[in-house]
Specification:
The chain has 679 residues and is α/β, with parallel strands linked by helices. 59% of the residues lie in helices and 9% in strands. Strands 2-1-3-12-4-13 form a 6-stranded mixed β-sheet, with helices on both faces. A 5-stranded mixed β-sheet has the order 8-7-9-6-10. A two-stranded antiparallel ribbon has the order 5-11.
């Protein structure tokens, strides 16, 4: 009975230690405000006197490193003027910022016109300001770029549609990179870029410019603003580009906040944007203009959702052209669609775009902000560090006591107990140390915002599952998605097949040379380090290296999977070799056979079934990995998947995901059957 009580108490002690550590982590996480803002019903400043956090979304037209360098002084100035802790939110694509605003992870953001239109429609956004350029102009142009030494001279040269060119389109939510080229170049001519060119990749402006300059693609979209920034930051790259087409002028980019942002926050933000670079002493104005210059901003002007009306018109004109040129529509369907779009266009031209402004004009919001709160710079949290040390030492002592031997049974040596206690306490300390940085203090949002996740998932289902017309429309969209996705999934599986085959062939010699019981020590370590390099570099990075040599397409994906998988399989193969039974090896050696014969007749027969199992498992994994290689133009279903996600085409996305799930499940079942027969 006493032994049972003691054991129970020891278990409670261990549980109590872990609970205390988690409680400590929760306390440390609450010391700092989360990145998301408070809800609109809360006051502008937290009651504890700390600065309120507002997240500012920034569209990804350049690399994150370039953005941080250019935007940081502007963010710091905004924090100083508003009294808020403004945190930049850099997203890899436009859809990321739009979704972040939709679910209140971002409270206001800088958008392009077309992505701003999506933010107003999908994320409850409101336009309240617009940028100007340093020369005072209020517009820019979309352009098409080619390498300076390219034989392409005019727009007509890229419209032959012979499948020989690689084209770089912008993000599906980009105005100058996607909407304007679609409306002015492709739609009027009835051209589908995916059918016209050898490959079409979607990327931000800087990535497209670099790809064109390096000859990875033949033509790429961009805009005049980004070209000016590129000339400043990378003149060598700029000098390797040539413009072959320029669009009519596009209005400058809007600044958009959530419509439900509280009034005081709107006042402070409006005050900053309307006065920064205008108000202050001449020295202060000059300093502000110097901050705005790297962003290629002049000052800001008040705006409303009406700023986006021309983009709505452009969108309708593009759709009209596509309907007129769509061969799949009957005459009756075409006439109906055209009439609907023309009626919609007339409404927009009359000023009824449906983008309702909710009292966000400059006159309607006072330009007087409340007093600013300047928080002192945070220093090292010595108190929390001391508490953490006390927990570590106390946990070590408690674990030592809990693991002490009591009653009959084997005695665990003291040093082993100390080692086990140090490891256990170390794990707890590491969990506490990483708790805040891993944002675990915000894990409550998984429950609090579960409805938002349900709403997002609902976008993949019919609008009204009880309505037969809605189900028919949904099934038609799924069918179209299946027709598009199945051929690309076949290509993805073929990429995985060849990538795995090359990796298996390569991993056999590398695996043998990595085994300590087969290869000499002076050779084992270099080969193992080489395999570490192969394993540690992600397939996307490796694919970019091969794209430089073979261009866009599946071959780069095959080689990326082959290199990465070689590193993985070589490690598994070598571990299998090191665990073999040495009896057969000694038997072959006794016959006077050479080392190579020992490997062929004694080693490989023992490990062949295990190697085959490893190879099949990696094939399953590669079939999944190959789906994301399309993100960088390496072929397969990944490219259309990311296009659909970025375009918020959820029903098309659902069809693609269904195809991927079915294909991967089928591969998994076949692989299991093969492994069962071989082992």
């Amino acid at each position: 009975m006493t032994s049972m009580l003691t054991q129970s108490f020891r278990m409670l002690a261990k549980a109590g230690l872990l609970l205390a550590a988690l409680s400590l982590a929760a306390c440390s996480g609450s010391a700092n405000e989360p990145r998301s803002s408070t809800t609109s019903s809360e006051t502008a400043q937290p009651s504890d006197g700390s600065r309120r956090v507002l997240n500012f979304g920034i569209i990804a037209t350049e690399s994150s490193a370039t953005q941080e360098t250019n935007w940081r002084p502007f963010i710091d100035a905004m924090s100083e003027w508003t009294g808020y802790d403004i945190q930049p939110y850099y997203a890899s694509d436009y859809a990321g910022v739009i979704q972040a605003m939709r679910y209140d992870s971002v409270q206001f953001a800088w958008f392009s016109n077309f992505s701003g239109l999506q933010a107003v429609r999908r994320a409850g956004g409101e336009v309240f300001a617009k940028a100007t350029y340093p020369d005072g102009s209020e517009g820019y142009h979309s352009v098409l770029l080619v390498p300076t030494d390219s034989p392409i001279q005019t727009l007509d040269d890229i419209l032959a549609c012979d499948g020989s060119l690689d084209f770089g389109m912008g993000d599906p939510n980009s105005t100058s990179g996607y909407l304007v080229p679609s409306a002015f170049i492709f739609a009027p001519r009835g051209i589908d870029p995916n059918e016209c060119y050898n490959s079409v990749r979607n990327a931000n402006h800087e990535a497209n410019a670099v790809a064109v300059a390096n000859g990875l693609i033949d033509v790429g979209t961009n805009n005049t603003t980004n070209m000016i920034l590129l000339e400043r930051s990378r003149p060598d790259m700029y000098n390797r580009l040539r413009e072959i087409w320029r669009s009519p002028m596009i209005g400058t980019d809007p600044i958009i906040w959530r419509a439900d942002l509280d009034v005081e926050a709107k006042q402070r933000l409006q005050y900053f944007f309307m006065n920064y670079g205008r108000m202050g002493t001449p020295e202060e104005v000059a300093e502000a203009r110097a901050v705005l210059d790297p962003l290629y901003f002049g000052t800001f002007l008040p705006a409303s959702n009406a700023h986006l009306d021309p983009i709505v018109q452009l969108e309708i004109v593009r759709d009209l052209t596509n309907v007129r040129n769509d061969p799949d529509l009957t005459d009756e369907e075409r006439a109906t669609r055209i009439a609907e779009l023309q009626a919609r266009l007339a409404e927009v031209e009359a000023g009824n775009s449906g983008l309702t402004s909710q009292g966000n004009s400059f006159e309607q919001i006072t330009n007087e902000a409340e007093g600013q709160i300047h928080a002192e710079a945070a220093g090292v949290d010595w108190v929390m560090g001391g508490v953490l040390m006390i927990v570590a030492v106390g946990g070590l002592v408690l674990l030592l006591w809990a693991s002490a031997p009591r009653g009959p049974g084997p005695k665990v040596p003291l040093m082993e107990r100390i080692a086990n206690a140090v490891i256990a306490a170390g794990v707890v300390v590491i969990l506490v140390w990483s708790f805040d940085s891993a944002d675990m203090d915000r894990s409550y949002l998984l429950v609090e915002n579960a409805g938002d996740m349900g709403e997002f998932i609902g976008g993949f289902l019919p609008d009204d599952i009880a309505d037969s017309a809605s189900r028919a429309t949904y099934w038609e969209a799924l069918s179209n998605g299946f027709e598009e996705a199945i051929p690309q999934m076949i290509v993805t599986v073929q990429i995985a097949i060849w990538g795995t085959f090359i990796a298996v062939i390569s991993a056999i010699p590398f695996g043998l040379l990595s085994a300590r019981n087969v290869a000499p020590g002076w050779l084992v370590q270099p080969v193992r380090r080489l395999m570490d390099v192969f394993r540690s570099i992600n397939e996307l990075i490796i694919a970019l290296v091969f794209i430089a040599a073979v261009g866009l397409g599946p071959l780069a994906g095959v080689m990326a999977l082959a290199v990465h998988t070689t590193g993985v399989l070589a490690k598994l193969f070598s571990e299998a070799v090191e665990s073999i039974d040495h009896g057969p090896v000694e038997g072959v050696r006794a016959t006077g056979a050479r080392p190579i014969h020992e490997v062929i007749w004694a080693v490989i027969p023992q490990v062949a079934p295990l190697w085959t199992s490893f190879g099949l498992y990696r094939f399953e994994s590669n079939a999944r990995s190959a789906t994301v290689l399309g993100l960088i133009g390496a072929g397969g279903i990944g490219q259309i998947l990311f296009e659909a996600v970025r375009a918020f085409d959820y029903q098309r996305t659902a069809a693609i995901v269904i195809v991927i799930v079915i294909a991967v499940s089928a591969i998994d079942m076949m692989s299991q059957l093969l492994r069962k027969r071989l082992t």
